């Protein structure tokens, strides 16, 4: 065994601290004197450590201030995930086998309690406001002790639906008037379209976004119909399509700007029987893409022209980084919908409380049918969770909590991206989304992420391989990893090992 020189050993220590987030980007590195004192080393060893870390890009020296941790240095060196050919004609619509493939992966991933589970898209429980929700629930029970023994309203509690409608309306931008004499063309003038605001009566409460999506698809389509979806997309949607006897038509989707509008147009013109297009405009699962406003508007116009439903899955917009909103304010496609073609589905799962199983749907021209289907399928949601959520969301604490959550997720995304950049072989591609809790990675040289999934499983780590996000044979080299949990030394080690495994796969004939 070779013994490392002391300065290299100490450099390892500080690299791990940066990766694990104990030393954050932009923060000051302990001074040379502190390094000397803490590790009982000479001044020249301390200087060697800092110079080495500086040469590797971990630290930067600032005149008369010392050394500072450089922001996301390694991750910035990785190229983004490739766009698919965006004008490709869609595959033939299909439904066979989606369920079997996804379910097989999910079953393997659930077989035992894994040491490191990077396969979910969820935050650690401690990031959610358990105490505040508990207090809100207790208050609600004190004020109305009989609520657990009375039937709840089928559409959902009025106060909850009112709060959701207010948040929806508040999230949209005000109408911007053009300067006097502006000759901008009508089609460019998306921001002049009056905002479609929602009221409580437009909203049906559901059992998470999953039930909302099920109701949406059942309302707009019959078994045997075709639904255009992003490719890759959230595997739960593919399972829902198959369970309802619907065919999926996969449309190329960019990890930056979302679904290809050209390919949707082609599909709507050439494929008979398309009843809906389903998109996740904000922080698409799994790619993290955000659709620019112009794309959202163009998609709405296409759906209106072809008289097809536009199902908008807005599970993640509360987790969009504040910096995005300066470029393009938060605006749901629903807010432009003057014809009732948009079926808006959302959830509190990712942004507030996975345990409450609360979602909602506002279905435009299909609202009455959705309400009937919900009543037939599962009756009402229970009151207590709705009331606790309503009282927390209505308080100023909700925005404070969301700001903190977004900042924490930003740090964890940076740490995870750093680990991928540090440990995975050259040629790995990574798109770091502007919000949310997942990273979408492309392995180099067409290496198989399915093989990586099995190798990692054998060592108690679970990832989400790209193949579960499609019914095609694409995305075999892609994987999604979760950044919703604190980046602990254990997670760091798991990424180091995953990187080695990718290297081993590359070495295999
Ligand atoms: C895009 C998307 N839609 C819907 C869901 C399901 O949401 P819920 O748990 O509220 O049913 C998820 C969960 O991962 C998701 O990522």
How would you sum up this structure in a few lines?
This protein has 17 helices and 16 strands. With 509 residues, it is an alpha/beta fold.
Question: What is this structure's SSE topology?
Answer:
Blueprint: H1 6-20, H2 32-39, H3 43-55, E1 59-62, E2 66-69, H4 73-76, H5 98-109, E3 116-117, H6 130-143, H7 158-171, E4 204-207, H8 208-220, E5 226-231, H9 235-243, E6 247-254, E7 258-259, H10 261-270, E8 274-279, H11 293-305, E9 309-314, H12 322-327, E10 342-347, E11 358-362, H13 367-378, H14 383-394, H15 396-423, E12 429-431, E13 438-442, H16 449-457, E14 461-462, E15 464-465, E16 478-482, H17 489-507
Parallel strand pairs: 3-14, 5-6, 5-8, 8-9, 9-10
Antiparallel strand pairs: 1-2, 4-11, 6-7, 10-11, 12-13, 13-16, 15-16
Helix pairs in contact: 1-3, 2-3, 5-9, 6-14, 7-14, 8-9, 8-13, 10-11, 15-17, 16-17
The structure holds pyridoxal-5'-phosphate.
